[in-house]
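Reviewers of the previous submission asked for a worked example of the structure-prediction workflow described in the proposal, so we include one complete record here. The input consisted solely of the amino acid sequence. No template or homolog information was supplied to the procedure at any stage.
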Amino acid sequence: MSFSGMVKEELYRRQDTARHCQLAELCALLIFSAVMRPDRENRTPKIVFRSENELILRKCFTLLEKTFNIVANIAIDENSPAPRGHVFSAEISDESCIGRILQGTKVVSDGDTGELILDGNSLITQRECCRRAFLRGAFLSSGSMSDPNKGYHFEIVCSSETKAKQLKAVICSFSIDAKIVQRKHSYVVYVKEGAQIVDMLGLMGASVALMDLENIRIVKEMRNSVNRQVNCETANINKTVNAAVRQMEDIRLIQDIMGFQGLSGPLQEIAVVRLQHPEATLKELGLMLNPQVGKSGVNHRLRKLSEIAGHLRENEEDLL
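From that input alone, the workflow returned the following structure tokens.
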């Protein structure tokens, strides 16, 4: 099972006891899993629930039974196969039940499309606990997460820009930086930063998934830290080796063309020590001198040798 599926299974088992939170979760499930359509026979409106995940519809009707004492049956829609299986559907056609549901959840219908959206003046998400329940219902209906071993991505797909903006406002109320992007005919509200996805799982009540994600993040951060340290040390070693190679080339050039006799005593000493110990660091070279010299002093002498070698190369080019 995917990580996203594990999160949904955990959220499905999460049951709020407060009626206002149950209504908020049901509100999100209605918005993201249902539409209002006219009945073919008598043309009266009905609420139609559809989902590829049977658990989502079961959660809808568990909440309907708890909050409104409404019971409905879930059926498989054989005429609309989903890419990975069947589409599960259910309907509520009783006008009094529909009125109670819309009134209680503060959901309104877009007359043209039948899409259900949150009432602009809705009080359903005023409480923090209710906003958490709303996010849980939204993710259960149309959310997904990438495998955290591969990357961090949390998203909820919305069928309209209005829904996306309403959902983003709820998420941003928790100081989480959610963004909206259009994908074909849908609008996607997404979060990509690992720490904020952890916060989202915590808000929705997926504590087990949160701990799993945190463990993965810790391992990845430790691995990245080790890799950065190794890369840094490798870069320093390469820098030291390259510098030593250049110094050896300069010193051998001086030795071949003019010899060490024309150098001052300190320069002769450092030239000989460098030739004898090509792998030594500046600090180690300084300790080998008599009297001992610090890193800056060793670096100064080697720079002088490099300048002398540079002049010798220029003279060779002039002669050619």
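The longest strand covers residues 75-82. We consider this example representative of the routine output the project will generate in years two and three.
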